[in-house]
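Go through this pair.

…
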Amino acid sequence: MAEPQSDGYGRGAAILSVGIGVTGLITYAYFSLASHTLSEEDYGGITLLWSAVFITVSVLYRPVEQLLSRTIADRDARGYKGRDHLRVAGAIQLALGAAFAVAALLLRGPIEDGLFGGSRTLYWVLIVAVLAYAVSYFARGFLAGSHRFGLYGGLVLMEASSRVLFALAVAVGIASGQSVVALGMVAAPIVSLAVVPFALGRLAPAPRPPEVEVAQARALDEASAGEPATEPEFTLSHGTGFAVAVLLIMLAEQTFLNAGPLLVKAREGAGGAALAGFTFNVLLIARAPLQLFQAVQTSILPHLTRLRAGGESDPFRRTVNVTLAAIALFAFGVALVMAAVGPSVMDLVFGGNFSYDRGGLVLISVGMGLYLVAATLNQALLAQARALETCVCWLVAAGLFVAFLLVLDFEDRVLQVEAGYVGAALVLSGSLYALYRREDAGGLSPPGTPRASTRA
């Protein structure tokens, strides 16, 4: 039997990299147009709305996206035909959306008046946009698990393109005001769902990756040997356990990305806003690559899941190792650029009266590499159905990061954030690698082998 290749993963990552890269440029255009057409106060409201929407949807809905991506890939590789996993994922997503709606309505005063300065429009855009993204993220998980990366890229590209049209309408004078720009955030997830009918069967089925053929051939071999593979029931408890673990991982991820500037502002008091903004700019070195890395995260999880279902341990390890090597080279390159011209580049891009420290920029570049290593190992462990153990590593590392910022009192707050970020990323990547190697040393479980510790 021919050894499965990683072509499906490579093609999927390449397609998504193009789609997400273009999406990033279009999103930049959305903010650029908004900043040039709105007052500083109105533009500030748009950035607050954006942050509120995407932090919320990342935490609430990416768990179901990951659940669907992994489960569909696994069941497809094993030849299972049931639809229980779709119903379970839908029920979880509906519950999360309903919980958000109830919380947002109960907290209307603090959100509308405290966060959005009394803007009723921004408040309702937040609610409708977050609820619309529940469907969008469900579709993303379905497309990724089904190996339809072209449609996935089309979804995110259509989302960004429809959003920017609202800012463009204001810029050219067809419409005016903050409300029109904000409505783009509601239209984007709704318009993007135009790809769903194609995903549900209007196009020919997606090509089956080689690892799927291997897994199904193995299942046939087992059946011919008198060991027929039976389709297990996918229950709400299985899906909820996985989703809750990933939800906690998403909370830890947001802690890594946002705790630094927020805690700097809190500890510096009323005058800390400018320093918090400076800290945010420094951390953009770590945040920016995550946009393109989404393509790798999206495509690698179903690919590794299929390899695991087929018991293909060598291609599994090779895919992980190649991805880690690429991340190391990328992080090394970024660190070299920061060491050579980092302060000049940051001054040119962001301006302001702050002085960017060369050593601190290199430190953040190293932390960025460690964080991307952790994100890759996270997907490998989710593919191995080890969400609960992975979640513990994330929570411990995020807790140490916050404790480092709260307990210690550096004179240089920015250096404290930089050191804390790198240290926590090292703890996270190291613990996840140890967990991954422990599984790797024992080999991948054969298809259909139950694992008591992986119910999450």
Remarks:
- Residues 236-456 form one domain.
- The longest helix spans residues 40-78.
